[in-house]
Automatic annotation (TrEMBL):
GO cellular component: cytoplasm; DNA polymerase III complex
Protein name (Swiss-Prot/TrEMBL): Beta sliding clamp
Similarity annotation: Belongs to the beta sliding clamp family.
Keywords: Cytoplasm, DNA replication, DNA-binding, DNA-directed DNA polymerase, Nucleotidyltransferase, Transferase
Main subcellular location of this protein, as a coarse class: cytoplasm
Sections of the chain in a coiled coil: none
Record NCBIfam families: dnan
Function description: Confers DNA tethering and processivity to DNA polymerases and other proteins. Acts as a clamp, forming a ring around DNA (a reaction catalyzed by the clamp-loading complex) which diffuses in an ATP-independent manner freely and bidirectionally along dsDNA. Initially characterized for its ability to contact the catalytic subunit of DNA polymerase III (Pol III), a complex, multichain enzyme responsible for most of the replicative synthesis in bacteria; Pol III exhibits 3'-5' exonuclease proofreading activity.
Cellular compartment(s): Cytoplasm
PANTHER family: BETA SLIDING CLAMP (PTHR30478:SF0), DNA POLYMERASE III SUBUNIT BETA (PTHR30478)
GO molecular function: 3'-5' exonuclease activity; DNA binding; DNA-directed DNA polymerase activity
Residue ranges annotated for the DNA polymerase III beta sliding clamp C-terminal domain, each copy included: 253-376
Subunit composition and interactions: Forms a ring-shaped head-to-tail homodimer around DNA.
């Protein structure tokens, strides 16, 4: 196996594939990067058993500067190999595998010899035999991930909640995540004519890595689902992830249908106020801030208190306040995550009582995106 390639092109794809490679794995060969050179191009593969990423650098694209002198395959120690490639002196490098899996890497006057491993011992990627592909807008899908993944649980005691529940029914795609303290739900309409029905739970950690790979150049993401794996295709890159097994709880009943008190805010302004109040709440043991809402006076006041440091009180400027008077306490970190997901929107917050979960929705799209937060009992 022997090839030469532009270093910048190789590093870009290597960075993507490395997301799937972990130094902590029970299968030693998975700490390596698999390289396969064929007449069509160069394939890079990384895996950690939970996610696998494979990308192809085409030999026919002149911008890649890829010249394959002889075909073959090798597995190289990923972290060490990556550091070498990033520090080579020239714009191109050559890789040559000789007998005994010895691998010579040369660029300009620099030459490295690295011990490789037999690529035949590398685990095979899952085969997802399905023609039932769902095409998603890249920017919308990236936004959907960022809006829902904030609510996944970090507690391995309930593994099912560490994932995002994807429900596809005809032309509607519903994504829900909850850690039992908060919930985030986003709906996206699929192209009409879709006859797809799927119900899967994808690990939140996998979706975070996938989201980091969806750049502006990917205007479309293709999703394929099988019994225990999901495959996402971004251009020449394939991202595989295992699915979580089990039944996701019915979250639709958690969302209240009526409200006693509603408040409208500009999301960035409310976020700034919550951040100021949380400066003190983070110093106290319970990390709670309180809102006092008085619709008759059209006022909303925020309180943060830490017995050791002091307290903060701020009068907020809501766009509108309706309903009954209310005092409610909550975790400011949950509120900040929720508000970040709305960007520059105007939002409506709906409360039912001091101890019932409350919802946040964008005023212009109340049906398709909702955040729910459970309050904290302080009495």
């Amino acid at each position: 196996m022997k090839f030469s390639i532009r270093r910048s092109v190789f590093i870009k794809e290597l960075n993507n594939v490395q997301r799937a490679i972990s130094s902590k794995t029970t299968i030693p060969i998975l700490t390596g990067l698999k390289l396969v050179a064929s007449d069509e191009g160069l394939t890079l593969t990384g895996s950690n058993a939970d996610i696998s990423i494979e990308t192809v650098i085409s030999a026919s694209d002149e911008d890649n500067g890829l010249a394959i002198a002889s075909t073959g395959a090798i597995v190289l120690p990923a972290r060490f190999f990556s550091e070498i490639i990033k520090r080579l002196p020239e714009d191109t490098f050559e890789l040559n595998v000789t007998e005994g899996f010895q691998t010579e890497i040369t660029s300009g006057s620099a030459a490295f010899n690295v011990n490789g491993l037999d690529a035949n011992n590398y685990p095979h990627l899952p085969e997802i035999d399905t023609t039932d592909a769902i095409k998603l807008d890249g920017a919308v899908f990236k936004e959907l991930i960022s809006q829902t993944v904030i609510a996944v649980s970090n507690q391995e005691s309930r593994p099912i909640l560490t994932g995002v529940h994807f429900e596809l029914d005809a032309d509607q795609f519903l994504a829900v995540a909850t850690d039992s303290h908060r919930l985030s739900q986003r709906k996206v309409n699929l192209p009409t004519g879709s006859s797809t029905k799927h119900n899967v739970i994808i690990p939140g950690k996998s979706l975070i890595e996938l989201s980091r790979m969806i750049g502006d150049e990917y205007d479309q993401v293709e999703m394929r689902l099988s019994e225990n794996q999901a495959l996402f295709i971004l251009g020449e890159t394939s991202f595989y992830t295992r699915l979580l097994e089990g039944t996701y709880p019915d979250t639709s009943r958690l969302i209240p249908s009526e409200a006693e008190t509603t408040v409208e805010f500009e999301a960035p302004a409310l976020l700034a106020s919550i951040e100021r109040a949380s400066l003190l709440s983070h110093e106290s043991r319970n990390n709670v801030i309180k809102l006092i809402i008085k619709p008759t006076e059209q006022t909303v006041t925020i309180f943060g208190n830490s017995p050791d440091v002091g307290k903060v009180e701020e009068d907020l400027k809501p766009n509108a306040v309706t309903g009954s008077e209310l005092e409610i306490s909550f975790n400011p970190d949950y509120m900040k995550d929720a508000l970040h997901s709305f960007g520059q929107s105007t939002i409506k917050i709906s409360f039912t009582s001091a101890l019932r979960p409350f919802t946040l929705v964008p005023t212009e799209d109340q049906e398709n995106f909702i955040q729910l937060i459970t309050p904290v009992r302080t009495f």
